[in-house]
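Good day; I would like, with your permission, to put a structural problem before you. A protein sequence and the structure tokens that stand for its backbone fold form the material at issue. I would ask you to consider whether the tokens describe a fold that such a sequence might reasonably adopt. I set the record out below, with my sincere thanks for your time.
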Amino acid sequence: MSGGAAALLAGFVGFLISEKFGFELVDSGDFYYLFMYGVFGAFLLKPLMYTLNVSESFLSTLSYRNILKFFTKILLLFFKTLKL
């Protein structure tokens, strides 16, 4: 009897947690969303990793100069691809 009650309580708590974060039913599709958030997070971290320099501190990575240099290179690569 206690195992059944624990299973019902675990299901109810899981339902409350999933409702709080906006998932109607927890299924394999929700894990796909979690995976895709991880993929997008990795793509967002890639420019940051590109600007890292071993000889400087981590905070210097977030300087405007390095970020501007990165996006300037991306823009030049884009124009070079279009041959403008």
About this structure: The two ends are 74 Å apart (CA to CA). The chain has a mean pLDDT of 75. DSSP finds three helices and no strands in the chain.
